[in-house]
Structures are given as structure tokens and as C-alpha cells.
Write a structure and sequence with these properties.
Blueprint: E1 4-9, H1 17-26, E2 34-39, H2 64-74, E3 77-81, H3 91-103, H4 111-115, E4 119-126, H5 135-148, E5 151-159, H6 170-176
Parallel strand pairs: 1-2, 1-3, 3-4, 4-5
Helix pairs in contact: 1-6
Length: 196
């Protein structure tokens, strides 16, 4: 199966540090790997409504929700490129992940079974020297992958506040060159605790 990388840009502005770092990492992908880039700010999703117990779910069509659902189902690798906002993913990114809850209940797509075994990756830039402050972001992505039975490729970190600052983070640019290499084949994500 050929690989398709879906890059979901979660920043509220274009060409920020997270996007720059993600594009540097993507430059290293083989030319036969398809890349699809979608800005969540330019393709906003409606607020997620939890209708688990009081509504039938139908497959969305003709809007940003349908676009993102189809792109997610077609991807072998999903890259969440979200800046660190208040120690976790951006609002655009969180809304996208919230919609997974609805897609899990959408008949005819087998959302969880489709994503099982595929890989979830993260890229983030933060204006802080200590990466530990991004633990909630990492946990969100790792646990989402674990719940779906996906592989987790880890998170590529960069440092920067003003757009372009990450280009001065030589260590991040060096890590970007090998972030998606086959030698880093991720393992199936596991919860650090038993889910009951």
C-alpha cells in the first residue's frame, strides 16, 4: 500500500514555526509518498455536538467536515502540526479531534477499524526551553492513537515565538531530517494504564 501523509495545520496563522518545521520534515519524505496539506483555520469545522445518545449519525457531505473526514480516511499517516497553545493542542486541532467522536458512530465508514494500524505523528513549536510543558499535547496525541489502535510516531519539537524563529533552532532542523525515516518505524500506541 502506498503511503499518504495528511498534514493538518492547526495554527491560527499561516507559515508559523510549526508549519515551517513540519515542511522541513516533509522534505525528507520519498517522492513516491503522497502529501496532502490542509489548514484547519482555512477549513474550519463547526463546533462538535455530542449526539451519541439522541441522534442518528449520517456521513457529512459537501462541507469542511466531509473534506476532513475523507482526507483522514484516505491517509496512512496523519500529522498533527499544532503549535503549543496553553500547553496543549490548538483550538482548531482539538475541534478536529472532537469530531473523531462523531465519526466513530457514523455508519458505513468503520472509522476506528480504518485508522487501526495507521500512524499518528505530531509536530509542534513552543516558546519555552523546557519540552515538559508540552506533556499535555503529547498525551492528547499518544492517547488518541492508543484508543484508535494506531501507531504513534512521537512529536517533533521546535523552539520559536515569532514566525521564522524555528529556523534558528538547529537541533530541531536536524531532528526534522530523520523524523519520518523508515528506521523510526513507530510501534502500536498503548495506554500507560489499563482502560476499564
Amino acid at each position: 500500500m502506498s503511503r499518504t501523509f495528511l498534514f493538518l495545520l492547526g495554527s491560527s496563522r499561516g507559515e508559523g514555526n510549526t508549519e515551517i518545521l513540519a515542511r522541513r520534515a516533509a522534505e525528507q519524505l520519498s517522492p513516491d509518498v503522497e502529501q496532502r496539506w490542509i489548514s484547519l483555520a482555512e477549513h474550519p469545522l463547526p463546533d462538535f455536538e455530542d449526539l451519541r445518545h439522541d441522534s442518528d449519525h449520517t456521513r457529512p457531505s459537501g462541507d469542511n467536515t466531509a473534506l476532513l473526514l475523507d482526507a483522514t480516511l484516505e491517509a496512512t499517516d496523519i500529522v498533527i502540526a499544532s503549535p503549543l497553545y496553553w500547553y496543549s493542542v490548538s483550538g482548531h486541532t482539538k475541534r478536529y479531534l472532537d469530531h473523531w467522536s462523531g465519526w466513530l458512530r457514523t455508519p458505513g465508514i468503520d472509522f476506528k477499524a480504518t485508522l487501526e494500524g495507521r500512524t499518528l505523528w505530531g509536530v509542534t513549536a513552543l516558546a519555552h526551553e523546557e519540552q515538559v510543558v508540552a506533556d499535555p499535547l503529547v498525551g492528547t496525541l499518544r492517547n488518541s492513537a492508543a484508543y484508535m489502535g494506531m501507531r504513534f510516531g512521537g512529536v517533533l519539537f521546535g523552539n520559536g515565538s515569532k514566525p521564522g524563529d524555528v529556523l534558528g533552532d538547529e537541533e530541531a532542523l536536524l531532528r526534522a531530517k530523520t523524523f519520518f525515516t523508515p528506521e523510526r518505524e513507530p510501534e502500536i500506541a498503548r495506554f500507560p494504564y489499563e482502560v476499564r
